[in-house]
Amino acid sequence: MAELQEVHITEEKPLLPGQTPEAAKTHSVETPYGSITFTVYGTPKPKRPAIFTYHDVGLNYKTCFKPLFDFGDMQEIIKNFVRVHVEAPGMEEGAPVFPLGYQYPSLDQLADMIPPILQYLNFSTIIGVGVGAGAYILSRFALLNPDVVEGLVLINIDCNAKGWMDWAAHKLTGLTSSVSDMILQHLFSQEELSGHSELVQRYRDIITHAPNLENIELFWNSYNNRRDLHFERRGDATLKCPVMLVVGDQAPYEDAVVECNSKLDPTKTSFLKMADSGGQPQLTQPGKLTEAFKYFVQGMGYMASSCMTRLSRSRTASLTSRASIDSGRSRTTSQSSESGIVPSGSPGQTMEVSS
Q: Where is the region Disordered (predicted)?
């Protein structure tokens, strides 16, 4: 059996009244493609999947997901599930820089590193939450292991390989831009980057001064060399589980997510486009994403009796819901919701959430 390393950490986070701190345990497990680190919060719940997250390039699980999972109303959801935050090799805090010539795993190989994690934890099923590269990795894993994945929340997914024009543009950009600048353009919209918001400045500092920037560049190269997922709406190469696609309005991957939506089964897929959220809606709009996630897991049959306190206080948000068909250009229907999100159970919808 591969040698396992375990580190115990306790992370401080905002707590709701009456809550006690949630302990986190970080583990490393060996796989055929090297060691991978993951952090577990909570304890397994009977007959419930684990929430299983995978971050994007330039981020780790804290910088990618902490605002979302620290959000007050999210505590009602996560208390019902154990959750696992995976970190791509070399992305964890304090990770040593890989030696010169190290062959970083491809995204397909990163997906193949997930089964040893689940085997180690003895988890049988998951609800995956991925952003960017993490969304691709979880999708690849779900294609290969449909019985393990009960649902997927995919933020900023691009299911296509880079075309020749994209590849040439990437190479030309690399001649004039630093790796950190290219990753920032991957994470944030042009409007956000030109606006020099506090969020962008904070993440610019994190990435530019990251001690493992060489590792991040290797992950970035693997992402840009990804294969096409070859989704087919009416074929076997499609996701079998419920899927919620999420992207911000005017985000770098808005068109890619729209295209992905056109390739997935409309009876199992919902498309959430969030206004005023930029390139990272889980950072800028954790409240609205929490609402959507809550209804998503309810639609899967979990938490049916729960209600969210903030939703009962807020009656100002609105939502336009349009039925989605193959061409995406058919008749539209509109409806509004006091909560701002239409509950699951109406798959094949495009949901536009505004402030």
A: 1-27, 319-355
Give the pair of three-digit tokens for residue 182: 């290219």
Angle at 300 between CA 295 and CA 305, to 5 degrees: 60
> So what's the pLDDT on residue 175?
53
**DSSP per position, 98-116:** PPTT--PPPHHHHHHTHHH
Quick one: tokens of 237? 């190469």
C-alpha radius of gyration, the chain, whole number: 19
Q: Decide: helix, strand or coil at residue 270.
A: strand
CA pair distance 164, 300, nearest whole angstrom? 40
Q: What is the DSSP letter of 281?
A: H
Q: What pLDDT is recorded for position 177?
A: 75
How does DSSP classify residue 211? Answer: T
Kindly state which CATH superfamily the domain 24-300 is placed in.
Answer: Alpha/Beta hydrolase fold, catalytic domain (3.40.50.1820)
Question: What totals of helices (H) and strands (E) does the chain contain, helices first?
Answer: 14, 11
254: CB partners within 8 A, 6+ apart: 247, 248, 273
Q: Residue 330's pLDDT is what?
A: 35
- What are 72's two structure tokens? 């007050």
CB of 320 closer than 8 Å to CB of 273:
no
Q: How far is CA 164 from CA 62, 156, 170, 224, 280, in A?
A: 34, 21, 10, 12, 27
Q: Mean pLDDT, 10 residues at a time, over the chain (355 residues)?
A: 36 44 86 97 94 98 97 95 98 95 97 98 98 98 97 97 64 70 95 92 96 97 95 85 95 96 95 94 97 96 66 36 36 32 50 57
How many Cα neighbours within 13 Å face the side chain of 198?
2
* CA separation for the pair 229, 290 (Å, rounded): 28
Residue written as tokens 């962008």? 200
Q: CB-based burial of residue 111 (10 Å sphere; 0-12 exposed, 13-18 middle, 19+ buried)?
A: buried
Residue 291 per-residue DSSP state = H
Per the CB < 8 A criterion, the answer to whether 89 and 128 are in contact is no
